[in-house]
Amino acid sequence: MTASKTLKMGDQAPDFRLPNAEGRGIALSEYRGAPVVVYFYPKDDTPGCTAEACAFRDQYEDFQRAGAEVIGISSDAPSRHAQFAGKHRLPFVLLSDQDGAVRKAYGVAATLGILPGRVTFVIDRDGVIRHMFSSQLRATRHVAEAIEILRKLT
After folding, report:
1. Residues 1, 98: contact at Cβ < 8 Å?
2. What is the CATH number of the domain that holds 114?
């Protein structure tokens, strides 16, 4: 996967294939035909990331009613994702971007040059980016932003 130009709303979302918590490769293109919320987060089991993941969990039925799937991506290993998902009963897919290639392709920059960025993308059923939200400190706001946009898409 090559580095992308800066993505903007209306661009085609770059496809990727990353391992899930069980180590099986999952591609974004497998979800074509349904909206997808892809959220990049810094690290499993940190306070902000746990709050964000649990907010997605708590409103997962809203995403399902909108016909959307949620995918969380960080650089954590698949085994770490499995522990994190089990501990917090996360019903959605977590993918491991250990070399940062997908984060780079999506233009998700580090905060202050050190902390992996926290950015959410809402991608429509045709693979087009319809919304992007970036906020390191307002982790749970990512969920509200995504749901609001999904409601407008349906």
Report:
1. no
2. 3.40.30.10
- Run of H or E residues at 91: none
In a domain, 59, yes or no: yes
Number of domains making up the chain: 1
Contact 15, 7 (CB under 8 A): no
Average pLDDT over residues 96-122: 88
Residue 5 lies in a domain: no
Task: Write out the catalytic residue numbers.
Answer: 49
Contact 117, 108 (CB under 8 A): yes
At 117, list the tokens.
């960025």
Q: What DSSP state is assigned to residue 13?
A: P
CB 4 within 8 A of CB 106: yes
- Residue 1's pLDDT band (boundaries 50, 70, 90)? very low
Helix, strand, or coil (residue 114)? coil
Helix (H) or strand (E) holding 121: strand 119-123
Task: Give mean pLDDT, residues 57-84.
Answer: 96
Which string of DSSP letters, residue by residue, matches 34-78?
S-EEEEE-S-TTSHHHHHHHHHHHHTHHHHHHTT-EEEEEESS-H
